[in-house]
């Protein structure tokens, strides 16, 4: 018999957990670095538009389906499907979703392991353990596997405790710590020489770049990835929401927190790049473009911290501590997707399911590490650039076309009896039915065609 399902005990607990799922490396690492390499403010502008016009409606589709079914993604999509064909499509979508979530976690754990290693390296430097500090920042199979496994054990330990004692309890602790740490770092970096140049890049848009297909595709991918959409994480979290909660309000809060942290992270990373330039650190590649992605986080910023002496070591520790927290708040939601399915569909005990699935994902991470140059970039592109938008497209179809309109209204009315008279109900059902799928598919087709 399957375990009794958990439920979030408060609105704050859900918002912290869902925002924690949404707020991760995609916000603090991915969003600012993509902004840096895609026109700064132009990327920010397109990202904000897509987040509110596509990501929020898609998020609501997942939350509504999840709470209606109070089940994992496979069971939920099967439940709302009226015919055998649609049930098979729903099951396939759910299965692909938890496989993609597992693959995302397999590369996410690798990057998160690097964050923990760099955090401990700063601590070792403060303690005068230079040899250990150097080893922790050197790319090697031993270091990579060791810290990937450490991160997976942390993730598994939280998920093993269940919804309230694990996911909700730790999200309520980690998210405030993340917000405070991020705010302190932003305030400090903005006080340094050179930061104003980064602010100009971040806040003054180049509207010609805003119309670039490459930029739009990158912004859509960033919006879906940063909000954990398409793979069933928000659907599963939605299944743990009390029937008394107002779903559009909850979805709006999660979206606002997620976007706010991504934008705030931009005030940290881009000014920090120009502070580095002011301090003599190279931030442009041979083509004259801003360095981005892993080169920025693991080369440019550490080099900046080194130019700042003992203060830089403290800032480095704080920064990578922040990144480690962001990674952990997201990883627990990714692991919960296949775990919820295994518990509910196959009656496996939570602890058994968590350790077995977490172990399999760790094996996948190890395989990626052993074939890093071939597999890492491929898995990242497969999951975040292609799979997530397509799965988001499918979930919009199920919410807009498969789930009956009266069922949608009934579900939304549970936490808000007056919802039928509100603006959300007048717009969202048609919006998610027609506009979202078409736009997502059009942008996805553009990404395929280059």
UniProtKB/TrEMBL annotation:
Q: Which UniProt keywords apply?
A: Membrane, Transmembrane, Transmembrane helix, Transport
Q: Does the keyword Transmembrane apply?
A: yes
- Chief place where the protein resides: membrane
What residue ranges carry the coiled-coil annotation? none
Q: Tell me where the transmembrane regions lie.
A: 12-31, 43-65, 141-162, 174-195, 215-237, 249-270, 314-335, 355-383, 390-408, 428-449
Topology relative to the lipid bilayer, per the entry, is: Multi-pass membrane protein
Compartments, as annotated in UniProt: Membrane
- The superkingdom of the source organism is Bacteria
Q: Name one Pfam family in it.
A: SNF
What is the name of this protein?
A: Sodium-dependent transporter
Per the UniProt record, the lineage of the source organism begins with: Bacteria, Pseudomonadati, Pseudomonadota, Gammaproteobacteria, Cellvibrionales
